Every structure is written in C-alpha cells, then in structure tokens.
C-alpha cells in the first residue's frame, strides 16, 4: 500500500510540475544552490524548486532602467546568492538564498562582471576561513596589460569590507596582454584547496586554450595570485581544435580528471568538435600573455602543454558537457547545438561505449553551455534551450523489460533487481541482488565459453556471464543437444556467474556439435546456441595458418597458440578466454592484398530515402567485401553489399536514414578492417517547382527540364499513368534535371514522379503531347555569298526553340548544315554559308524527321498577275469617286481654314500678352518649412526605393529592442568590417561576381554606410582607398568617365557620404530656396488650366506636360467661407483665385493652398475630408465631381467644372467638414477608382468616335507649337527662384561659404590627379562635377520630397524639376551648346542663361581651390560631431545582419580573395567565427 501511495505522489508531481518550464525571455544563466534553482533571463531572476515550480521572482530591469546581470553565484556556506550587473555604472547585491526578493546588501559604482556582453567565470574560492568571489573576465577598455582575474571580498568582516579587491598591502590581480580573452569555465577543489580557470586566448593571431591554477589555501589575495601556474591545453591529433566550448570536472579519488569540448570552428565538418579527457593534477609553468600584476615580464612561456588522456567522442556541434561517476565507470552527458542531450559511458580505461540520445528538441535549439544535476539524487539533469528549462532523467532503466535487455544497454546506472523483477537504479533495489555489468566489460559479450580437454578423454565446457551482482542470486545452467542432456553429471554446482558441463570427446570427433545453453538467474532465462568443434582439426589440414582459421578457433572455445588451434589445458573452472582481435591480429599482415583507397563518391549527397547505385571510385578495390556506413551517433555501422566492382570502381546502395546529416563511408576487406573515410550527406527529399516545356511532339525526343531543390538525389523519373521509367541527367549549374520524352500517339495529361532510392516522390505540374510539327515547304534566296532558306510551317503550340531544330540541305550527294537564324510561329529561317542552291532539306526535331522539296514558283506568278489586275480596276473606280467628293471637300475645308486661322491668331496674341505681362509675385507666405529629420532624409537617399529594408534601418519609437540590439554576433561582424584589409577584400570579392547586380552594389554600400555611421572617419578612409582602387583599374582607362554613373559600391558610398556631410548645409542654406522654388512652380502650374485626368497644364516648363487642348476659360475670384460648428456659423471670407475650367477637386485643392499661403499653416482637414457648396439664389448647392447632370460621351464621363455649375466671379463657396457634417457626405473621390483615367475625362478629348457638332470648341485644331510661349512665361515667373537656388548652391551669393566636406573632397581629387599624373584640367573639372553636382545636387533638385515632409511630387512636377536639373548640369558642362530649331525645348528654354551660369561655376570651383586646406584634425572633429549628432538613429544591428547575408552568399569567394591578397590568417579565422556565431543563432536562436 505504501508503494502505491508513493507512485501516486510521483505521478501527481509530474502532472502539476512537469519536466519543462518556459520563460518570457531567453535564459542567460542558471545555477543550483541549497536544493533550489536560480534562473536568469533578460528581465527577471526566478527562484525555482527542483521540480521546476516557481517560488519567487525578481525583476532586474524595466523600461526606464536597463540592466544586465553578469554575475550569478550561490554562496551556500553563507546562505546567500551574489548577483552583479551593469546598472548605475555597475553594482553588486547579496540576496537571501531562500527568498531572492529579500536584499541583504547592495552596493553601486563597482564593476565586478564584464561591461560588454561577453563570457565570464565567477566562483567562490579561498579557504573556509576566508572566502572570496573569484572572477575571470576581460573588458575592452584601456591599454594592455588588462586585469583579467580578480578576487572580491564576500563578507563585511574581511579587510576593506565586502566587495573590496584590495589586500592588506596592495591590490593584486592576474593580468593579460592577449588581444582576445574568453573565460569558459572554472571550479574550486576543496581538498586540497585549489582554483582552476579555463579560457580561450588569442595571442599573435593564434588561438589557444589555457588553464590557470592557483593555490587557494591561503587567505592572502597576493599569495594566492603569486601561486599562479598555467599551461596550454592541446586537442587533438587528427586536427587542431583551438577553441574550448564547454568543460566539466569528473569526480575522482586520485588526481583531477577534467573533460573539455574543443572546436575547430568549422560547422561543415562532421567532426568539428571533440570531447577529450585530461589529467590536470599537476599544472606547472607559465603561458605567454598571462602573469601576476607586478611581474616585469608577461610574455615568457615555460612548462609543457597538456595532451589528452583520451579523445572519447567527436561530433559536429557539441555545446556542453557534464559527468557523474559510478564505481569505475564514468557517465558523460553531452549537449549539442542542434538540441540533443547525449549519454556516453566510459570504462576505467576511458574507452567509450555506444552513445544514446536522451532528449532531442524539435526545433534544434542549442543546449546552454552549462548543465546542472539534480543535487538530491543525481538522477536528473537540468538543461536550458533558449527560453526553456528542461529536467531530463539520466536514468532510463524502466524501458528495459528483461535482464538481457538491461545488460545490453551497457549502462552502469542500470541493473536487474531480482526482487522487483525489473531494470532499475541500484538505490531502488534494496535487500536483494542487483545484477549489473562488471567493470571493463564494454567490449565483452554477455555469454562466453571455453573448452578444456582433460586427461580422462573428457571435454569440459566452461561458460561465463559478463555480469556481477551485489548478492548471490539463484543461478543454474543447462546444456542440451536436441532434446538430450549433454552433461554427464560430474560437474560441480553452478556458482554465479560461472558454470560448466563435461562430456565425452567422442561427440566432437564425428564433426561439429550444436549445443543449446540455457542460463537461469532467478526467473530470468538467457538462451544461446553454441557451435563446438574439434580444436585439433581446425588447422590440421592447412599448411599455413590464416586469420580466418584463428578467428574460427577462438569462436569455437579453443585456444590459439604457436600458429595452431588446440585444446585448452588447465585445471579448474578458471577462464582465460582469448579475444580474437588480440590473438589473431598478427595474422592480418599475412593477408596479401593491396590496401584499398577511396577517391570519390558519386553522388555524395543523397535524400534521406537513400540511393541506389552509388558509384565509388578509388584504387585497389578488388578485395572489398562490403561497405560500412556510419553516422555520428550510430554505434553499429550499417552494411551495404558490393553490387559489382573493378579495380577502380564499384557500385553499392546506400540505405535510408531516419535523420539528415553526414555519415562516414569506408570499405571493408576480408580481415574485417575498414579503409577510407569519405563523407555522404543525407538531405531533404527532392521537390520540383516547375516543368519546362510542358508539351512534347508525339514522336518524342524532346528535352523536358525540371526545376526544384535537391534534384541531385533523383535517380529516374516515372511518367504516369504509363508508369514508364526514364533516365534523367542532372545539371549542376542550374540545379535542375532533364529527360527526353518517349513516343506517344495519344492525348491527355501526364504526371511525373521521382524515383529516390526505393521510394517515389510526386512532382507538381504535368505535361502533354501535341501533334508533330508540320513543315509544308521551303523557298531559297541568295544573300551575298550565302543561301537563305525559308521553311514554311503550320502554327502550333509547341513553341520550338532553335536548339531543338536541326536542318540539313542536300545538293546532289553533298550535304550542308543550315544554321538557324530565327523561328517564327509559321516559319523557320536558316542560312547555308557559301552555297547557291539546294535540292532537298532534312529537318530533325527530336525523334521526328521530315524531308522537304522546294516550292514551284509558277503559282506565285498567277497570284501576282491577279493582284495587278485588281489594282488597276480599283484605281479606275477610285479616280471617279475622288473627283466627285473633291468639290464637296473644298467647300468644307475653306470654312474650316477660316475658323482655324481666326483661332490661331487669337491664341498667338494671347500668348504674347501673357509673356509681356507675366508677373513673378507668386509667394505670399510659406510658413515654417517642413524639413524631414536627418534619419528619414538619409534613409530616402540610401534606399530610394523605400522598401521594407529602408523602414527596418531607421530606429523609431516602438521598434523591437531585440531587433536593434547589437548582440555578440553583430559585434563580432562589426569588428571584422572595421578591419580595412578585410573590408577591401569583401568589397572587391563581391564586385567580381557576375551575379552581383548594380542594385546589390547600392544596397551593400548603403548597409556599410549605416553599419559604420558611428565611425564616419573610418568610413571616409575606406571610401578613399576604394576610390583610389577604382581609379587604378584598367577598365577606367578614360579618366573622364570616372564617377559618371553609380556602377560600383564605392560610387554609391560617395553619394551617401556627400549626403551625410552636406545635410547641415542643405538645411541651413539650400532648404529655403528649394522650398520656395517648388512652391512657386506649383502655384504657376495651377494658375492656368490643368487637366485633372492627364495632369497636363497650360503653364509648365516641360513640353511633354504642355496642355494643347485647353478650353476657353476665365479667371474667377471666389469668396470662400468655412463652416464653424453645426449651428450654421461661418468664418470670415477668404479670397481664392480659380478658373471656370477647374474641377470640383481642383477648387478644393486651391482653397486649401490659399489658406496655407495666407495663414502660414495648413487647414485642419485634407481635401478628401471636406465638401464645398455654392450659394445660388440664397441656397447652398453641393458641388460634386460627378453627378446625374455630368456630360457623358460614349462610355466616358466628363468631370464637373465651375463652368458646368455656372459659378460666376465673386461667388460664395462654403467649405464643410465631412466629419462634422457626416450626413452631407455624398460620395468618395472618383480619383480613388482604379479605372479613373479610362472612365473619366476633363479637357483632353477622349479617344472615342462621337458627333462633335454640339461642341464646336472641340473641333478647333490645336498645334503644340502655338503654346510654346507658355513654357517661356512659366520660366519667367519662376526665374528668380531658380537663380537664387543655383547661386546658393555654388556660393556666389553674399556671405556664402563652401562646405568643409566639399573642400576636403575636391582637394582629395586634386591629389589623385597628381598621383595619376593627369595634367588636363578638364579631367579634374569632370571629376568634381560627377562627384558633387551630378551625384548629390541633381538628386536633391529632382526629389524635394527627400528633403521636405508631406510633399507630393506629381509626375508633372517631376517633369518641370527635370528641366531645371538639366539646366543646372548644363552649367557645369565644358562643351559648347550648338542649338537650332530642332533642339529640344528643355535645352532652348535656358540657352541664354547657361553661359552666365558657366562663368559662375568656374568662379565657384576657383573659390573652393583657393580656400585654405582642411586639416586632418578639422575633418576628424567634423566627422566625429556628425556621428555623435546622429547616434542611435539607425538600426546598426539590422544593417549588420543584412550585410552578413552577402558575406554568407559569397563566403568562399571572400575567403579566396583574402588568400590572394596575403591577408593575415586571423581575418579568415574571424570570418569563420562570425559565421559560427550566426549559424548558432540560426539553429538555436541564442543571442
């Protein structure tokens, strides 16, 4: 009853508590103290029971006080938990170990843990009389040597008080000169009192693992540090693994055995990490770069490096390790980066057994580097996976149901409990026998036997079990042959674990004997079939002993001695059973064969479904008997037979695999040795994304291409429903495959399936058969010395390509190849070189062929004669009809010409009047200029397409802090790109790739700008180096073309750099003239008719946007009042200028524009949120864009205008806000209709056939040239604004100054011209023009929306600004303009102004040159100020992550570029480290 209650309690415990708990943030650290768990996340510290139920929680930061806890150490002897963090320039707090919400002591202003987010080690050290907090860390500040190990007081009673580092005489510590130090682990040994620290260090660009030892039996900090001994730890013999990932100390009676996980930093290597064991009992010597403070020399090295006792496990990505000891056994627990917890058994010689997986996460989250055992019974281990803490049982005995299965597990923690009759841990089996595996029995079989020949012609069979027991279980054995008992009854009683059976030797002389052996232990029976042979006869008939005979001898229970098989002679049941691999090993050398060698496997990447007919190429393959395939966690390799072979090639099938990943392949020879170590990768099954083409002709032979992923694992394609299997060919360059279609005379759709190993995988899509192509004939024509052949064909749906058609011409017995030039739907055109005629043609299309004879030309002659006759007849009829209608037409034309002449005369006179009376009084009041802030201005310059990338790069309120935090991986990558040599190789490697587009170049340049925005001085230096490299390229032989376009990363960098440096100048000096110009242009355009649909206007600077179909219009002055509230009150009237041809929407826009100009701020509502009413006869009539009175022509509706509503001069218009007067809202804007330009028109005639007799004004013929004077009048109106803007830019206005960046960069170009020995002044002028006006100012002139907020740049406004920008650039041109009447109007418009502007530009360039040079200190201060001004405005982390994608895409090419430039090896190492950090993040999400 008691047992049942206990079972119910255990069940309830797991129901309510569970084996895992998820937190609201990533787990940063967790520790065990006083039977409690303490878990640290980003925001909180949690106090947990051992069953993972939460007791207490404590917030460690909030929105206003950011804090990162970097020290978490339980002080069990003092019942406290020590925590330290970064808040308030560093702090430490002592918490109650039983209740973390109780603070015992708090001190701020001390920096105990690392300032940066780096690894550190902290532990309680020192003798029991004086305990210290030992901290190993490295902060990136100050100059070397850096303090890396300190001792901090833990009690107020110690000298200096709690958290003091001073000693009674001085401050002592361990210091380092290493460029990079990363502490990984540490522990304190109690007896004797010793402290150990383990760390990674980079010295002289070489990575090493070091161990630091200190005698902590003294209570003086100075003496403790003076005892420092150190050594380098090396791993391993097969390859260097210079980075320590995790470690643990193994409980030992004698000595100190330590295990470490070492990494080669190569994630693609299936043996990237290794677990090695070391004896660290005696650490003596010094290592370079580490010494006690005060030592004069910190670079000496002495003593020996530590080498492993044993390398017990290798895997691609181990991340953590822990260990327990059970007698002579060691049980290792290994965490991996792909979320597995692996159990590994070691015997007393450190020989590993089979590994087993205790747990595997479903999403490959990495196991945290530290794991902790349940201190209550050590039967569970706690592991952390990102946000989850999991409690995993390390003793999983219950799943084994029999003694044999329990023994087969080879787990020293499990044994068979005789009383309870189940497999269990030893502490669960009391007062009874517990049967388990004996020591050093990993390689031993459960049951072994030996035969001894006695003098009395008896054979005694001795049998032994590889088991041991804590008691004396009931034990018996039986031996039978068939149903007859073998034993003669003379043997002693069986005693666990041995028994024997004696029988007559005559039973063996007649041949082999099969014996059934049954061993009973309590209620468990173990049965085994034994094959016994006459030992003397095994080698009697053989002149030479062989390895096979030796193995057969020992497996039969005989003794191998002196090259012969013989009986074992010896008294008693004592067994000395030989092992075949020991006794027969010397015979391996007698086996004569050449050692096989594997050169390649084809393919070496397969689906997890396996693959048939793998081709293995190598040498000396004749002796291979089978293939072994072994995965990382496979204890027993899979075997595959050899199908066929030669000396250098063999074929085999690779079996399916339950998991993806790499496996090792080796070939087995007759001596059971395995040779070679090749790799095959299991990947996902293939999937197809498309079939092209999707039709074939019926004769077949068409090449069908299939695109998709993992296509190399496809063996063949099956066409359904015919179920025919077709061979495929894999295309490495495209990643797809293809096959040739078979003949099929029917119709219908065909589906495809892939054969992958012994499985089939369906492919999306289908294809069908169409009739064969029909070629009907051909004609020829002589072209120079070649013969052009035109082949007629019927149109079809085959869409033939030129590579599918082969044409051969025949002239007599000779044949000629006809080279295809074009394939059309009804013709094929080809050419035969150097030939004048052919008799016949052969056309081949796949498996279809056709022979053609030439067409006769007679029927073409008949057709030609008939056409001539028809033409003559038609001409006669036409002359008669024409004469009759000519007279009528003349009369009509005379009237039309008179009207046209009158209209033209009127329009020209009006244009002349406009030009002579044009006034430039456009701007009344613009109010405050709405500048964009810097970060949004920069994002528009850097990413003009304004996609999602631009939005992510700007830091805004509410953005996810995780996405903006520069974490460890981003910090590492940021440090890497701050190496100028690496960044140069990175840029050049990317630009050398053909698939690296101009868009990619611009993106990379802008990402670099953002990533390095905090260090603009370094960005400037990089830009200069890249510019010099660009100038030195052989492709830039003509220097005048330099910087003309943005076709490289550095050219976009230059654009960004100019934008950064000139933003202040732009706001202070250029912003107002630019805003006034845009405002003046907008007003001038709206001064005349503007077509609401096409946006063409009568007043414009661009001929392309000139409105030539303007109706007659009149100017109106409207009195506009604004409704106030809902009681009918209105505001004072506002005078608004409008035109009779304005639509209702245009009137709304003019009202709002006038309001802003008048008052200097915008109206509270947008035009979409207001309605207007017209006061007519004392009532207000709603004005709508379209209503039931609108004019309709064909299917097109004309927009209503003021003329349509008969609104006169001085009319009163009331503005109503739809939010206040919601019931009055009648319709949404028709411009919201996606077919607006098709369904509606304004002034430009719709393209329809209709009777225009009712609209005589529409019949007037309009010439665009009549209105060109409107361009000139617009230019006159805005001319003063244009000149003010130009002169503000090139500094000819009073008190103008040249920006520092312009002077600096122009001087840089001067120096480069001298370096390149360029004496032509025109080249320098062009360089400067391409760098500043073309690269920056034109971009600003054409895109004022980059500078001002809420500015809509319409296509029409863009056209006008383009004209001004063209004039701006013409001012910088050195070439003289040769203009005539055919020149474009945008050139003619400013033709008279350009010469004056050119003189001003020359003066500007001279002004820049004559100014004093900018010193490097001035530039540095300017750039530092710019960086500081805009810090934290951009998401540097996002920019680095996007940049990393390019590094990953071209990782190999960048590595090769580093090698070509003889870059230091550390750069490649750093690059691999960055890749590893990002890969870890991708697999696990740990940041």
Task: Describe this structure as you would to a colleague.
The chain is α+β, with helices and mostly antiparallel strands. 26% of the residues lie in helices and 31% in strands. It has 28 helices and 75 strands. It has an eight-stranded mixed sheet with strand order 43-45-48-47-46-49-50-44, with no helix packed on it. The chain has a seven-stranded antiparallel sheet with strand order 60-61-64-63-62-65-66, with no helix packed on it. Strands 67, 68, 69, 70, 71 and 74 form a six-stranded mixed sheet that branches. Helix 19 runs antiparallel to helix 20 (1321-1331) and helix 20 runs parallel beside helix 21 (1333-1342). The longest helix has 60 residues, at 858-917. The radius of gyration is 46 Å and the shape is globular.
Give structural attributes.
1487 residues, 75 strands, disordered N terminus, alpha+beta, 26% helix
Précis, in short:
The chain is an alpha+beta fold and 1487 residues long. It is globular.
Overall average pLDDT: 85
Percent helix, as a range, is 25-40%
C-alpha Rg (nearest Å): 46 Å
Counted by DSSP, the helix tally is: 28
Roughly how many Å apart are the termini? 51 Å
Estimate the global geometry from the Cα principal axes: globular
Main sheet makeup: 8 strands, mixed
Poorly predicted parts: 1-17, 1222-1226, 1249-1253, 1256-1261
The portion of residues forming beta strands comes to: 25-35%
* Class per helix and strand makeup: alpha+beta
Strand count:
75
Spatial order of the strands forming the largest sheet: 43-45-48-47-46-49-50-44
